[in-house]
Amino acid sequence: MIDDGIRPQLGIIGGLGPLASADFYFKLTRMTEALRDNEHVPSVLLSVPQLPDRTEAILAGHDGPLAPLRAGIATLNELGVACIAMPCNTAHHWYDKLAADSRAEIIHIGDAVTAEIRRSLDRGRVANLATRGTRVSGFYQNRISAAGFEVCVPAVAEFQERVDSAIMLVKAGSIAQAAAETERALHLAQMAGAEVALLGCTELSVVAASLGDTNGLVVVDSNAALARASLQRLGYPVQEARGLPTVSSLAADDRPSLGVTRRAS
Fold first, then answer.
1. According to the 3-state scheme, what is the secondary structure of the chain?
2. pTM
3. Model confidence over 212-223: pLDDT tens digits?
């Protein structure tokens, strides 16, 4: 039994990947309108980095990640959380099955992102920078279309290759190089007619503050959207996340360059 004096309100399924969940918690903290420690959200972050590759499972048509995700959700429910956030877009492929087993509400990142897009535009063409698994899952396409926006998918193969490369570079800790790859993918999205670009992988959220001039392209950060939705569901006041760190001063070769030899999960 957990002491009621330290019972968390928000549970976080983290580690998918570790930098992405750290980025989510940082943004959650920065977006909370608070003057002192005890005005922040009581939270618990359960990091499960050993969870099977989500994209690999989706593309292969199996549910390997589902059992450990269910175990994580069950653990957070046992702690008595009111809401659960999963700062991993691809894991939301199993959202319906996870939500059916959870007493606590699981906030869907797709719903949070759609609300965030609507804060900027009433209509437009949206390109999603996401893993191949998230794209195959289709939950973003369905939500974006239902909200009255048009899904924009750049036809050039280089677009997804740049996205995959950026995601894997973040996982390897090469943040400056990942930002450069993300900027190239954003340029290709805009060339294809996109007015909004969704950073639909939380690894890409890690580089959001490091992006240069996007030439009028509206960039939506899925981690920031999920953090906002989490605070709103729990009744906490939200402020804009000012003063987020940037890696623009880092050397481009802060870590050895990686080829896209592994699929982004």
1. CCCHHHCCCEEEEECCCHHHHHHHHHHHHHHECCCCHHHCCCEEEEECCCCCCHHHHHHHCCCCCHHHHHHHHHHHHHCCCCEEECCCCHHHHHHHHHHHCCCCEEECHHHHHHHHHHHHCCCCEEEEECCHHHHHHCHHHHHHHHCCCEECCCCCHHHHHHHHHHHHHHHCCCHHHHHHHHHHHHHHHHHCCCCEEEECCHHHHCCHHHCCCCCCCEEEEHHHHHHHHHHHHCCCCECCCCCCCCCCCCCCCCCCCCCCCCCCC
2. 0.91
3. 889 999 999 999
